[in-house]
Write a structure and sequence with these properties.
With 272 residues, the chain is of the alpha/beta class. The protein folds into two domains: 4-97 and 188-270, HAD superfamily/HAD-like (Rossmann fold, 3-Layer(aba) Sandwich); 100-184, Putative mannosyl-3-phosphoglycerate phosphatase, domain 2 (Threonyl-tRNA Synthetase, Chain A, domain 2), CATH 3.30.980. It has nine helices and twelve strands. 41% of the residues are buried.
């Protein structure tokens, strides 16, 4: 087999446990990934700083995608050709999203016009982010270092939330919904995945992509790959209304589900 295999994986609730943020339960699958020289691209709503912590823990040397596709971070020299981007801290960075300050400005303007029942990370202290997310204070500090999107919590009724989302769309921005909702520019994980696949194709010719996630913000990613995998949430339910051709739906979520789904797909690719 000569194809290059690339796994593009969400973190929270997928490779990372939804409560502990650990990936121990996926270690045997991660070992298989390493042994077969599969590229593991981390693709998350997390910030660059947060993702870099997990890259170090995973000994990961591959590109990664931060803040729902807002930025692609490619280690300098990773691809043997020129990439249009900005060199930053040892990475070539492709900014797909608009700057955080612009996103934050629009968020505050919409909040002022609509309701105070919404609170973004920019409105919270580090301790408050830690409290609402379950992360450590150190991790929460990294989570507040936004570059492309603003996570927020909505406390009002659902109709008010939908009206808030409509205001975001009217301003030309987009949103995702989950434990934290996000306001962001016209970018998503799928656009980042397609760009990265094109880069890998320039080097390897034939590329097989596997995408794995558990949320609505992962849908563009799952639509962009050859082997899409949707994991259930920690309550066992899947995000409703997702209909993607060839979609795998393991019964187990989090890193334990990752540990089941990834080897199954890799074996099917290896053995045809």
């Amino acid at each position: 087999m000569t194809e290059k295999i690339v796994i593009i994986s969400d973190l929270d609730g997928t490779l990372l446990h939804p409560d502990t943020y650990a990936f121990d339960e996926a270690k045997s699958a991660l070992k298989m990934v390493e042994e077969h020289d599969v590229a593991l691209v981390l693709c998350s709503s997390k910030t660059r700083g947060e993702i870099e912590v997990y890259r170090k823990q995973l000994d990961n040397v591959h590109p990664f995608v931060a803040e729902n596709g807002g930025g692609i971070f490619i280690p300098k020299g990773y691809f043997p050709f020129h990439i249009d981007g900005v060199e930053r801290d040892g990475f070539i960075v492709i900014d797909i999203g608009i700057p955080y300050k612009d996103v934050r400005k629009i968020f505050c303007e919409i909040k002022e016009k609509t309701t105070e029942d919404v609170k973004g990370f920019g409105d919270m202290s580090v301790d408050e982010v830690a409290e609402v997310s379950g992360m450590t204070v150190n991790a929460s500090e990294l989570a507040k270092q936004r570059e492309y999107d603003e996570p927020f919590i909505f406390k009002g009724p659902d109709e008010q939330k939908q009206a808030f989302f409509k205001f975001i769309e009217d301003r030309g921005l987009t949103w995702t919904e989950g434990w934290f909702s996000h306001i962001l520019g016209n970018h998503d994980k799928g656009k980042a995945a397609k760009l990265l696949k094109d880069f890998y194709k320039k080097v390897f010719g034939d590329v097989i992509t596997i995408g794995i996630g558990d949320g609505l913000n992962d849908v563009p990613l799952l639509k962009a790959v050859d082997y899409p995998v949707l994991l259930p949430k920690k309550n066992g339910d899947f995000v409703p209304g997702i209909n993607i051709s060839g979609l795998e739906r393991p019964e187990t979520g989090g890193p334990a589900g990752w540990n089941i789904a990834i080897p199954k797909i890799l074996r099917s690719i290896f053995h045809g």
